[in-house]
Amino acid sequence: MTTKIIQKHAELGTREFELIDDAIEYQISSPFGDEELSVVLSVLSPEPVVDGSMLYFLSEVNREALIKLFVDLPDAETFAEFVRTVQLRIKEEDFGKLSADNRKSAITKEQVDTTIDMLETYMDPASIDELLSNLRSLSEAPSDHERLNQVVEAFHKLGVQQGSVLTYAPFFSTLLSTTDFDDL
Question: Which of 56, 64, 67, 167 is the most exposed place for a label (fewest CB within 10 A)?
């Protein structure tokens, strides 16, 4: 399992990436300056995007490229192994994602109806129609765990609109996992 990679590009400088605990840390040295950053894996989509000679790991929330790698550097085999390792670690770190299993308290029809009203008021309903449809179904049977799973699945398909949904519908924050401070 490759957890560190150093990429040297003749014109764009050097990039060093390392998986440490629940994050990927990187350093970039280029003619434009130096940069160091740490990105928590749970915010990344496990499916990278290739654009020419670059491969990007995108934010699950706003689809911004947070990790930018040169394709096939230092060599194709090492690069592919590192990308596979990053993808695996991202999938292992999905504790920050919405899940029906994270909801500990009962859901009421009133909560779901308020959520629908908030989303229809502050967002374009046509842009979140699948989510609204699943919420309406959940409103009819708030204790149905399968319907709650369908709401979560519809939320995950929203891409950049997830941030707006979380802003306007606090109900969704109850589907996020929590970490007790005693566990840290």
Answer: 64
